[in-house]
Design brief:
The complex is a heterodimer of chains A (322) and B (378). Chain A has one domain (3-81, 161-318): Class I glutamine amidotransferase (GATase) domain (Rossmann fold), CATH 3.40.50.880. Helix content of chain A is 46%, strand content 22%. Chain A is built from eleven helices and 14 strands. Chain A has helices spanning 28-34, 57-63, 72-82, 84-120, 125-160, 167-181, 193-202, 205-209, 219-224, 261-264, 270-280, and strands at 3-5, 9-11, 15-19, 42-45, 67-69, 185-188, 191-192, 213-217, 227-230, 243-247, 255-259, 284-297, 300-310, 316-318. In chain A, strands 3, 4, 5, 6, 8, 11, 12, 13 and 14 form a nine-stranded mixed sheet that branches. In chain A, strands 1-2 form a two-stranded antiparallel ribbon. Chain A is globular and about 65 Å long. Chain B has 378 residues and is an alpha/beta fold. In chain B, the strands form three sheets. In chain B, strands 11-12-14-13-15-16-17-18 form an eight-stranded mixed sheet, with helices on both faces. In chain B, strands 3, 4, 7, 8, 9 and 10 form a six-stranded antiparallel sheet that branches. A four-stranded antiparallel sheet of chain B has the order 1-2-6-5, with no helix packed on it. In chain B, α6 packs across α7. Chain B is globular, with a radius of gyration of 23 Å. The N and C termini of chain B lie far apart (54 Å). In chain B, 44% of the residues are buried. Classes of the chains: A alpha/beta (322), B alpha/beta (378). Chain A binds chain B through residues 21-23, 48, 51, 77, 80-81, 91, 95, 98, 102, 190-195, 218-219, 222, 230, 232, 235-238, 240, 259-260, and chain B through 162, 166, 168, 198, 242-243, 245, 344, 362-363, 366-367, 370, 372-378.
């Protein structure tokens, strides 16, 4: 696999390009050109769009290249219809994950409230700072615990229904693998991040995508990261707390991505932002708004545009490539 | 006097043509900050404003403006308020109620129509209006064979757009469901909120009682109908989620009592409650102060207040501050909270009517049933 950038020489390692929402600013086409990704067809994963998975005409119009639709949402529907035992087990897993998420949320709310209050407290630093650190450590411990618990539920399911052992999953995995042979670059769209990551896992896409150039936006970018954090500070039902959803494919390391942060995060609330930064450190919390581009080569930052990171003082700072 | 009327009368009593022009050029009632002036034009012995809201006299008298057939009545109405009203015209020894002939904004309910006064700052929420971009769900009908009532009960069921049998859906049971659709635009609201990802795709059972003041007043047969007739037959017919936190029940007024009672009797079945202007009459000592139709309600509410049992995990309540029921609703909130129930209570400057309940649907439904907006990152 070879990815080439005329500006920076030949890359032997695949590139990872993360973008913000493609509306109002559509920068998918320029991002592909700027990264000098290899010519040829582009594979597309748009499972996050669910029933609208195959509506990829807009992408075609932007990239002006042949597209290969991997149809993984549709494939999952076919598998569920053909394998009742897998469907039952899948639903049981989802029920278990939902129950875990609810229990996690119960404790998270209290720990986050406590940590925020600590960070808002003013006074003798020699007294307060240790308490703040401890409050954040408790939060991080809960996050780690939740990731472990979610991971073990996935492992339990994967042990029974894996692309290596389940004939139908194996067949689809082989078909997807064959389709990917003809494309050096894969696009992952936004959409429902839970649906997307669940389908990616179901068909064992992590291993198949590892050697490819990946261009992903919004939910797609979240799915490529190590940890998926759900967030929305301004939904109609009232503010919610950012929560860990579970592991991503870990094809991007050291970053927690926050798409459409301008709309979804209360970036003016320094304490909330500061807490995000400290909670997920040493990973960098990166905001991806429409027009943002961040490009990695072998986990190294190669280029950025309009990307911000949340710093430990709660401010947004520009991210610059080395 | 309202500024526009003052201007009309600045040179003395206006003539017919001037009044015609004034009426053609103004929106009624006349809203000027927190001051609202109602205007009636016609021959009468007396005119009264009737708005059935707590805090006002039952009938506010109008004043006849000198040398004209213009009657006016001015009230103070805080910003953001919305009230429904009629005019009561007294003429020749008779009294009759009419909607405001100068105001086209009407609200409907099972008893007919009322005029609507939208106070300064009130705007009808856009999500209550038909959005052509939102896919339309469908309404299915079927009969529930009820052993509780020993008869068949016609029930409607809202199915979301792109409904699929392979999926499992949350369920919401709505008391006075047909009225919610007709008078509170429930179907439009569901279509929109689902389209905006603010609530999940859900199945909504729209129930209607032939004798709601009796059956909704804490009647054991009704709770049994919901638990043993309606739910199992819905589960047989539709793909419902097994998760009890994906099961909700709601209602307004007596429908709120029915929802609370059914959930209290069968707490394992419903973990989400949406109660709007619940008629939660109770008494701490002696008899309650309402009419006899509230007797069974008060019996239930007194028992409920004594022992709330294992009630729902999340309850959304709303009530208008211009309703006498605000007292009972406010009283219930701390009682529920002390039981560890997650309660969200919304007070609004509105009264006991369907549009009040319509305007609260978004905050209630999206809180009880958060949609995939949380999961969607486009």
């Amino acid at each position: 696999m070879r990815a080439t950038s005329p500006a920076q020489g030949n890359y032997l390692m695949p590139q990872r390009i993360l973008l913000g929402p493609q509306r109002p600013i559509t920068n998918l086409g320029t991002a592909i050109v700027d990264a000098a990704l290899p010519d040829g067809s582009l594979a597309v994963i748009s499972a996050g769009w669910q029933e609208a998975e195959s509506d990829i005409d807009d992408i075609q119009a932007v990239v002006q290249r042949p597209l290969v639709d991997l149809r993984i949402y549709r494939r999952a529907e076919e598998v569920f219809a053909a394998s009742p035992e897998l469907l039952v087990a899948y639903r049981a897993r989802q029920d278990k994950l939902k129950a875990l998420q609810r229990l996690y949320r119960l404790r998270l709310r209290r720990l986050l409230n406590a940590a925020r209050q600590m960070l808002r407290t003013r006074g003798d630093a020699s007294v307060i700072e240790a308490e703040q650190r401890h409050a954040i450590a408790q939060l991080r411990a809960l996050d780690r615990h939740h990731m472990r618990r979610v991971g073990s539920v996935h492992e339990e399911f994967d042990a029974a229904f894996d692309v290596a052992t389940h004939a139908l999953l194996a067949r689809h995995n082989a078909e997807i693998s064959a389709l990917l042979d003809g494309s050096e670059t894969v696009l992952l769209t936004g959409g429902n991040v839970a649906v997307l990551i669940n389908r990616l896992r179901l068909f064992g896409l992590g291993a198949l995508l590892a050697g490819k150039n990946l261009v992903a936006w919004s939910a797609g970018a979240m799915a490529l990261s190590e940890r998926i954090v759900l967030f929305h500070d301004n939904p109609p039902q009232g503010r919610r707390n950012p929560e860990l959803f579970g592991p991503g494919l870990a094809l991007i390391r050291g970053q927690v991505v926050f798409p459409n942060a301008r709309t979804r995060l209360r970036t003016s609330d320094r304490v909330r932002m500061q807490l995000l930064c400290r909670r997920f450190a040493p990973a960098v919390c990166v905001t991806l708004d429409s027009g943002s581009v961040v490009r990695f080569v072998e986990d190294e930052l190669a280029a950025t545009d309009s990307v911000r990171r949340i710093s430990d003082d709660g401010r947004l700072r520009k991210v610059k490539a080395r | 006097m309202n500024a526009a009327l003052r201007k009309l009368f600045r040179k003395g009593s206006p003539g017919k043509a001037e009044i015609d022009a004034f009426i053609a050029g103004a929106e009624f009632p006349l809203v000027d900050g927190s001051e609202v002036t109602f205007v009636y034009r016609g021959v009468a012995d007396a005119v009264y404003l009737r708005c059935w809201i707590s805090g006002f006299d039952a009938a506010q008298p109008f004043q006849l403006l000198n040398g004209t057939e213009l009657w006016v009545s001015t009230i103070e109405l805080p910003a953001g308020s919305r009230i429904e009203y009629k005019f009561e015209i007294e003429a020749g020894g008779n009294r009759h109620l009419i909607v405001d002939p100068l105001n086209d904004v009407l609200a409907h309910d099972p008893f007919g129509a009322n005029s609507v006064c939208q106070g300064s700052g009130y705007e009808r929420p856009v999500w209550t209006l038909h959005d052509p971009e939102a896919r339309s769900g469908s309404i299915d009908s079927f009969n529930v064979e009820s052993s509780a009532f020993r008869e068949s009960r016609g029930t409607s069921v809202y199915l979301p757009a792109r409904f699929r049998r392979k999926r499992r859906y949350p369920l919401l049971v709505v008391h006075d469901g047909h009225d919610y659709v007709r008078y509170a635009d429930l179907k439009i609201v569901l279509d929109n909120l689902i389209h905006y990802l603010e609530v999940p795709q859900m199945i909504v059972a729209l129930t209607q009682s032939p004798d709601r003041l009796k059956e909704y007043a804490g009647d054991e047969r009704h709770a049994a109908f919901i638990a043993y007739d309606l739910l199992p037959q819905l589960a047989d017919k539709y793909p419902l989620s097994d998760d009890v936190t994906a099961r909700g029940i709601m209602g307004a007024s007596f429908g709120g009592v029915a929802a609370l009672h059914a959930a209290w009797r069968h707490p394992q079945l419903f973990r989400r409650l949406l109660l709007q202007s619940g008629s939660f009459a109770f008494s701490d000592l002696g008899r309650h102060r309402r009419t006899a139709v509230f007797d069974p309600v008060a019996r239930f509410m007194n028992a409920f207040r004594e022992d709330t049992g294992e009630l729902a995990g999340k309850i959304y309540m709303s009530c208008g501050v211009y309703e006498s029921l605000i007292y009972e609703n406010r009283s219930l909130v701390p009682r529920l909270q002390t039981q560890g129930i997650d309660v969200r209570f919304e007070e609004v400057r509105d009264a006991h009517n369907w549009e009040n309940w319509r305007d609260r649907l978004r905050s209630g439904l999206s809180w009880l049933f958060p949609g995939p907006l949380w999961m969607v990152y486009e």
